[in-house]
Automatic annotation (TrEMBL):
Residues 395-411 have a biased composition (Low complexity). This is WD40 repeat-like protein. Pfam families: WD40. WD repeats lie at residues 133-166, 327-358. Residues 412-429 have a biased composition (Acidic residues). Keywords: Repeat, WD repeat. Gene3D superfamilies: YVTN repeat-like/Quinoprotein amine dehydrogenase. Residues 394-429 are annotated as: Disordered.
Amino acid sequence: MSIPGANISSDRRHFFMSSAQLEALEKKEEQEKDPVRQRLGDPLRAGGRILDFELCNNSTAVLALGSHIAKVADLKAKACTRSQTKHAGPVTAVAVLNSTYTIGRSRIALSASWDKTVRLWPVDNARRTLAILVGHSDLIKCLVVHPMLPIAYTGSADKTIMIWKLPALSEELDTDENHPLEIKPFKTIKGQHSGQILALCLDANAAEILYSAGSDASICAWNAQNGSILKLENNHFDSWHIPRGKHQTNITDIKATENSLWTASADNTAIGWDLETRTADMVLEHKSSVMAVLPIPQAGVVVTGTHGGVVYVWRTSGGSPEIIREIHAHTDDITCLKTAGRVFYSAGLDETLRVWDIMDVIKFSGGLEYIPAELAKLREQLHLGCGLEASVGGKNKASNQQQQKQSFSALTEEEERELAELMSDLDDI
């Protein structure tokens, strides 16, 4: 119930905040106004916090937004289309079925939400729901799809993983748009994880293995076709499992390459695992939670995104890991990193999706912080402008002080003494 005449404000300063929170907010707002940050990575502005994204091709992406919607983005125009899919809660994850599985000429996207459902819809008409996947009893946190088959995998706060087999022919989804198809899970995996499932990925070779991780800081492996737990070679009694220990808390992201597995964690680390021995090959230490990880083996690097918005590029091919580049573009947490050929994309809670040429970033010779030449020149001009402004301000201040001194000199000696005492008293208050 609203009180007549009461002021309603969305300014966060009008709510209780500690001095540290207020300082952080002011710093963030200052960063958001920085014209160099505004241009770094040629940002696409989504109009909502990006929790996940998936690339359809080099010109289209699907975005999962905290504002309860999934959007289609035109990467070349740097804009989102008007077409969108609505959920009853934040959209946490999105995926796109392979290009042979289409409705008409449109790719088919999936969006998962806190509303416990996954929706299937045509990328060319996001307002139309083709099917709804129903089965989880709590928030859905992650979603991946098989690269060749119409199979989806979801992880949830209900501590389960569900495997969904979609209709073998996409035409079976082409039903009355007012009555979308309802699909139940093919298999529910539970009991191995003791916490929320926060991250899923398929192996990079044949997509035969599904890896899962979550709030219990453990990693499990499953048969991607039937959901049975993966057994170790030459030992049918032991399962493929990495227990809590090396990671101390939430595993926020997981990615597989041909030879290794990489995980990101809120314990300030990203770890590269040997797939055969299940031991940590490499540990990347950070100063804050690692929200996303992206191995790019062909370039010999691993990219990490952190709480607070810094993107780090690590050289991992030479033995000991080394940070070779920092990208200070985002002004809030990085939520997702994806690669496509020579470029990689970063997205975050600052509502932007940014694109980077990995070779340009690696070969950059201007220092640890990556700022392309044209933006470095802009920053230099801004600093010069600030210096000039400070100089002018200093001259004005000196002039004012001189004027004050001249005005004081018009006073009698006794009046000047009284004024000095008064000013001294004010300084002590």
